[in-house]
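G., the chain you wanted modeled:
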Amino acid sequence: MDTTAWIEHRRGLDGELLGWMRPEGDAFVVIDLLGRERTEALDWLAAEEFLEELGIGYLADKYELKLETGQWQPVRIIEVSTAVISLKQEDCGDMTAPSVYYRASFPMDERELRPAA
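Predicted structure as tokens:
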């Protein structure tokens, strides 16, 4: 995926990356940190406001990864970049559970990685 035209939007307080705005004509489509289009084309200010309101809290939500077996595995997002989404098998905070890591493609494809029900 070509992300070179995407414009980063960072939170003013701490500079945290909140997502991108993809130019579309004279407007912008909001892209979240998982690479999902979140809006139709908006003007610059509306796109910035949407990203500010969206924040990054959704990264802490529970997700499910489709394994090669076809089963859905509960996971948590541990790192996101435009190259890959890094995941950890959900262990509910059990420090004795083995750590199992996975990778998902960017942008998020809900046939591979989806929000948990």
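The beta strands are 7-10, 17-24, 27-31, 63-66, 72-80, 85-89, 101-104, 113-115.

Shout if anything looks off.
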